[in-house]
């Protein structure tokens, strides 16, 4: 029997309450073309080599899913799941995504993406996947700009049990501190630190992508 080629899943975290932009929800905010932030983020991810793409929902799940489905340029439609205990913190949302990715035997790693980072491009995602598949013995891959690491972060399957065991609202930050020296690095631009989680940043996002 032919063994399936290893692949990398993308897990998009989209379960948060967006309290810093309340009453607006950042993932529903439109860019200059009217495309919601979550859909803009997914456009680059679904165009990449990542497969499957898993979107983890929680707060206002139905609205976020509807907004994420507005883009007609998606060639690789994502899978939507809901983290039942998302209110317990980012770690539980991440665990739901890792659990879903684990059901695919060919998945050798998972790229953890944040729903509010729409400037991350397909090229960076593909370069991170290529770097990981070339060095599958590493814990994962991080993007770096001017000596600083950012998001997304790619974790190898060997790290899945540790990711599932995380608690609280810090996500995988403790694991990053522990394993960063052993992770592969991929050069990136300032977009790896650019999120949109304040009213001023949402106003900036509303002016972006005017050319489509």
From TrEMBL:
Keywords: Magnesium. One of its GO terms (molecular function) is nucleotidyltransferase activity. Pfam families: NTP_transf_3. Gene3D superfamilies: Spore Coat Polysaccharide Biosynthesis Protein SpsA, Chain A. The keyword Magnesium applies. It comes from the Bacteria. Residues 10-180 form the MobA-like NTP transferase domain. This is Molybdopterin biosynthesis protein. It comes from Komagataeibacter swingsii.
